[in-house]
Design a protein that fits this description.
alpha/beta, Rossmann fold, 2 domains, nine-stranded mixed sheet, six-stranded mixed sheet, 13 helices, disordered N terminus
């Protein structure tokens, strides 16, 4: 009798459908406070990517767990610990702020969990502190201002006054600018991260009378800076050049105040490829406005995971990272090439803030500043 029961049980197990393999992703971003607008766009884009992929990535059933880091390094470290030990995720992606990425990098990569940045690209992690379990799907921080530095140098700008928040990314931005801009740096000012009142800085800038002003003030900081710039009539004092300050985050608020402003970026909503066209159209239809590059790269991070799983067939961190290291990753920027330090090699565009056919403020590509542009730190990276 026991043999019959055992045989029946075995037959039932063999007849039952095999459970699908699964992948679990922790997406860490800032969803609260003044910086929450960036995280909300990233969350929207990840959800859209999962919808486009029918919640299946590379043949694996996929689950995304969103966590709010509150733009605080200590909170980010606690959340990373929870995602690794309690949620047992295979990948941690997102991480918008360089200070937070620096805080969690060692903790995540040493746990045999794949870490994918969808935004921050601090210079130490591209160079001496690189790790095989870390991949950037966005940029190295210096790259975008390098594009603006080259444009300003080629345009013959003689002097520039810089304003950037006092943290890792802010310092990287100025380093990148100066790598290609060789004119006079009148003043190099570092503001408080999260600062909203720039009256003192604008007064000092007015007195200095530089030919150009370069700012890196992402999110709400950029909105407040440009509003106060316009209110103070600073266009009559200096020409404004930006990175990460005039975009789909700030333009719905700034509107006409930002029209004509120039910036450099690796992505734009008018970038001509099929994946980008679908992403932008579906994002606008679903969420009622243009996506930002933060959103585009969050979407790209999911597409990168899909690619890694489809090619590697495993949720093992080293296997996924190995696939991504080879490049050929389908993204909203086209097929993404990767450098030896797991950071992208990509094209940099000059963009202008304009109005579209419906009168909505957005950006359009004016010209190409760099093609196949690699970061300056790969030579210092050894795995």
């Amino acid at each position: 009798m026991k043999n019959i029961v055992l045989a029946t049980a075995i037959s039932a197990l063999m007849a039952a459908p095999a459970m699908a393999e699964s992948v679990k992703i922790g997406f860490m971003t800032t969803l609260s406070g003044g910086a929450g607008v960036i995280g909300k766009q990233q969350q929207n884009a990840v959800n859209l990517a999962m919808e486009h992929k029918a919640n299946t990535l590379g043949g694996f059933d996929a689950e995304v767990i969103f966590v709010d880091d509150q733009r605080k390094p200590d909170v980010a470290k606690q959340l990373a610990n929870r995602l690794i030990k309690s949620d047992r995720v295979d990948v941690i992606a997102g991480v918008s702020w360089s200070s937070l990425l620096m805080a969690v990098h060692k903790q995540v990569t040493s746990s045999d969990t794949l870490l994918i940045s969808a935004n921050a690209g601090p210079s130490p992690l591209a160079g001496e502190r690189c790790h095989p379990n870390f991949v950037s799907i966005s940029w190295q921080n210096d790259q975008t201002p390098e594009g603006m530095g080259k444009y300003m140098q080629d345009a013959g700008v003689k002097s520039v006054y810089t304003l950037s928040p006092n943290y890792q990314a802010g310092k990287d931005m100025i380093t990148g600018l100066k790598r290609y801009y060789k004119g006079d740096i009148v003043e190099e000012v570092y503001t408080k991260l999260g600062q909203t009142d720039f009256q003192a800085e604008l007064s000092a800038l007015r007195a200095a009378k530089p030919e150009a002003t370069f700012i890196f003030q992402p999110g709400g900081m950029g909105i407040n800076f440009i509003k106060q710039w316009k209110q103070a009539g600073m266009d009559d004092v200096s020409d404004l050049y930006t990175v990460f300050s005039v975009d789909a985050i700030s333009l719905p608020v700034l509107k006409d105040a930002a029209i004509g402003t120039l910036s450099t970026q690796t992505w734009s909503p008018d970038l001509d490829n099929a994946m980008n066209a679908r992403f932008v159209a579906d994002y606008k239809a679903k969420f009622g406005g243009y996506p930002s590059y933060y959103a585009a790269q969050a979407y790209d991070s999911i597409m990168a995971i899909d690619h890694a799983l489809a090619k590697g067939g495993s949720t093992d961190a080293a296997t996924m990272a190995g696939v991504l290291a080879k490049g050929g990753i389908p993204t909203t920027r086209g097929m993404l090439r990767m450098n030896s330090n797991h950071f992208p090699i990509q094209t940099m565009y000059l963009r202008e803030a304009v109005k579209d056919a419906d009168g909505v403020a957005t950006t359009r590509i004016v010209s190409t500043v760099f093609e196949n542009h690699a970061d300056a730190y790969a030579q210092d990276c050894t795995f």
